[in-house]
Amino acid sequence: MMISRSSPDGLHVTPGYHHVTVVSAGRTAYLAGQCPLDGTGDLVGPGDFGAQVEQVAANTVVALGSVGAGPEHVVRTVIYVVSADRAVLAEVWRRFRASPLAPAFTTASTLLGVVQLGYPGQLIELDVTAALPDQPAPPPA
């Protein structure tokens, strides 16, 4: 599997992501929207964007790992933030780019301010698509 990322001439300079991501044919994982819930289903960090980014990033790393992938295999992200404030949106982007999930945000990415998400008090949700690494060949019989 090969992943290439580019930003064609004539498009605006980005704050770290690329405009285009191309993946050679292979297996793909589509993660459900990752929410700021802990392992027991409780919301982490009500009202705290930073705490929710940390939980979402941690959950996403676990979900990717469950299919043999890491942040470097992510080919598309969509970040949903309950805010219309550009400073809040920029801070959420900065925090994701500083998290263990940071390599995921060098690829095609969209950041959206929204009115509401699914859980009461939820401020962040992350939608991720990953190109899975090739499966190793089975051992010789």
From TrEMBL:
Secretion signal, residue range per the UniProt entry: none
A Pfam cross-reference name: Ribonuc_L-PSP
Domain of life: Bacteria
Stored InterPro entries: RutC-like_sf (IPR035959), YjgF/YER057c/UK114 (IPR006175)
Name this polypeptide is given: RidA family protein
Species per Swiss-Prot/TrEMBL record: Plantactinospora endophytica
